[in-house]
Amino acid sequence: MPPRRKIATAPAAVTSAALYIRVSTDEQATSGLGLAAQLDRCSAQAIVKGWAVATEHIYRDEGISGTLGPEKRPGLAGLLAAVDAGAVQAVIVLDLSRLARSVKLVTAMIESFDQAGISFVSCKENFDTSTAMGRAMLGIVAVFGQLERDLTSERTIAALGERDKQHGYKSGRIPLGYVRQPGQELIEVDDQAAALVRQIFARRAAGASMQTIADELNSAGAAGRFGGTWYRSTVKIVLDNAPTYQGQHRHWPPLLAE
Known about the structure:
By secondary structure, the chain is of the alpha/beta class. The protein has helices at residues 25-30, 35-49, 74-84, 96-99, 103-115, 132-167, 191-205, 210-219, 232-240, 242-245; strands at residues 17-23, 58-62, 90-93, 119-122, 127-128, 178-180, 187-189. The chain is built from 10 helices and 7 strands.
């Protein structure tokens, strides 16, 4: 019986990995965690995984803080460009802090790697999304990312609330009739605009509709904070600010008599 012929099989495609190494000036001086040491650890991890690392896919940022985004880190920008181009299928770093010092930046990048089908390995944390356990960890990363976003939102709201207590406004445009000098918190009356506000309230008190008031302002060529054209809706915005104009808003000088 003649021997069976062996059926040739195509060799499995080798995963192309990118290494990202970074050190800030202070770390390089005090910790000894230089680029060479990081490169050795990451390269060893690639060998263990059986992944190939081309020289052009070793990305370095030396003397650059991890708090900065990719626009200020050439090495990180190059890594992300390679990921976007599909030039690599995996990314290896020594630890998550090499990728970024911000939880928000780290989680955003790991989530983007996952969406692109890129395996991500952090040697020190044993974080490896090429494994089932590592993929499960993505859920935890997402939770922490959302937590960071929520905490940032809460801090912003708290800061705006404190600003409102101290100075009488949170953010955005201040009502027509008032002005805030650049670099100052104090709200002052804008005399020219205040006269326009009083005119609007006087016409409304006389029974004019909001559309009629808008038409009259446009005919007179009156311009305000809302641009050259007045509409019913912009007149309503002014009228809705009556409590502030009457001095009921702390820190704001009144424009109208109650």
